[in-house]
Design a protein that fits this description.
globular, mainly alpha, three-stranded antiparallel sheet, Arc Repressor Mutant, subunit A
């Protein structure tokens, strides 16, 4: 029944589709066809996002009670749920303020959008999307990840193939597009590549790369509005990267060392450390008297090749240290071994 509904929706206009779905949602029996009923209710919500939070919550509870749900139903739910939190990206809105005025019941929540958008992508085949849709979804996910005040680990997005839509264009199609289509696609995708570079710069705490993109950030509406937050976020990432690069037995770091690593004034390092501790990015203690941070743990994240090489080198150093210790024990305890 869900497949039939989805096919019918592609062949009708917006008003006809909404009226049809409303009648379907009212007539389908929840007990005999719970998935179809949930799908119809989700699609009704898609047509009227202004006041649907309660309806979406009801659908979520209904879906949670089902043993098995078709991907098309889950995809529809996560897509509409993401749209609900997507005020800043609503097409044809000049800015967030206008979006909020037009959609007063919707809530701007970048973290919620990010989670639901990724869950939607887990339920669909992104190869079936048009290049423009992939680019648009990747763009919005990247913005949400950067701007959110609760997302500091972009691993799931960095590993997702949707992010390739922001890479410099490389043609793999067997068809022959027109010159105009190729030029438009190349311009659009190459112009977006900086956002992908920015995500990876944040992931590895790369301040020089961030500084090189500051003008781009300032010129972008949403990123420009959150520039102060982004600056704090890149310094936090730089802090965790500085800790990660050190062996576990050398993670007692002075404020002056951290100041040099993060380019933060020494008197502001303690506040940065407290922020990192409160967010769960690191664990440890701060010795305010001696101006030393004792870090015992740093949040795992996706590693690039340079970071993997650094970890490999640390493992080699550890192996060498263990061997040296073994040789010393063997030489120092010869009489014990003989006995």
């Amino acid at each position: 029944m869900v497949d039939c509904l989805s096919k019918l929706l592609t062949s009708t206009g917006k008003e006809e589709r909404l009226g049809f779905l409303q009648s379907v949602a009212e007539t389908i029996d929840k007990k005999t066809s719970p998935a179809a009923r949930a799908y119809a209710e989700v699609e009704v919500a898609r047509g009227n996002l202004d006041d649907v939070r309660k309806d979406l919550d009801d659908v979520e509870r209904a879906l949670d009670m089902l043993d098995s749900v078709d991907n098309i139903v889950n995809a529809a739910f996560y897509d509409v749920n993401a749209d609900y939190y997507n005020v800043s990206f609503v097409p044809d809105k000049i800015n967030t303020l206008i979006g909020v005025l037009i959609f007063p019941q919707r809530k701007e929540d970048f973290a919620a959008y990010y989670r639901n958008a990724l869950l939607y992508l887990a339920c669909v085949d992104i190869n079936a999307m048009t290049p423009e849709e992939r680019r648009s979804r990747a763009w919005r996910l990247a913005i949400a990840a950067l701007v959110s005040n609760s997302i500091y680990n972009f691993g799931e997005l960095l590993l997702h193939p949707i992010l390739d839509a922001l890479s410099p264009i490389t043609s793999t199609s067997t068809s022959t597009p027109s010159i105009a289509q190729t030029a438009a696609a190349r311009t659009s995708q190459d112009d977006d590549a900086w956002l992908r570079e920015l995500l990876f710069a944040f992931n590895r705490g790369d301040l020089p790369s961030y500084d090189a993109l500051v003008d781009r950030i300032a010129a972008h509406g949403v990123l420009g509005q959150h520039q102060q937050h982004l600056a704090q976020k890149i310094h936090l990432s730089c802090l965790t990267e500085a800790v990660f690069r050190r062996p576990t037995h050398e993670r007692a770091m002075t404020f002056s060392d951290l100041s040099a690593e993060t380019r933060i004034r020494p008197e502001e390092i303690e506040h940065l450390l407290m922020k990192a501790l409160s967010l769960g990015l690191v664990r440890g203690t701060i010795d305010q008297v001696d101006a030393v941070a004792h870090i015992t743990w740093v949040q795992p994240k996706v590693l690039d090749m340079a970071q993997i090489e650094s970890m490999r080198q640390r493992l080699l150093d550890w192996d060498s240290t263990v061997n040296q210790l073994g040789h010393w024990i063997e030489s120092a305890g010869q009489d014990v071994w003989a006995a």
